[in-house]
Amino acid sequence: PGFQTLDTQSQAVNNLRVIRAVAAGNILNKDPAEPLDTFHWSMEKVYIWTMIDCEQPPSSIRHTYYFKGQKVNDIALAIKSPRWRTWSYKTLLEKRWIGQWRVDITTDEGNLLQSVFFEVN
What pTM was computed for the model? Predict the structure, then answer.
């Protein structure tokens, strides 16, 4: 079964709300290029791009990467204005990363704002 990138608005938590979050093969001019939900393992990077609505900047969010349910990366990202675009990435280039991925976008306290799913094959 294919995973869909949720493009729905999430609930506001701690004055933070995800406006849009996607997995992408590249970032151009601070926007996602090649938004996909499936990536080939030989691609260099998969980016998780997030647009955040923040009532009280500055703040921060976290991108926590899970591979087959196991946490493999946790990245803190600063939010510096009321509407902020930010992204993180996971380097692939290895067949061991083939499988299902989930990235949880959370507040610093760990409250879930939204999840993005993608698959590497």
Answer: 0.88
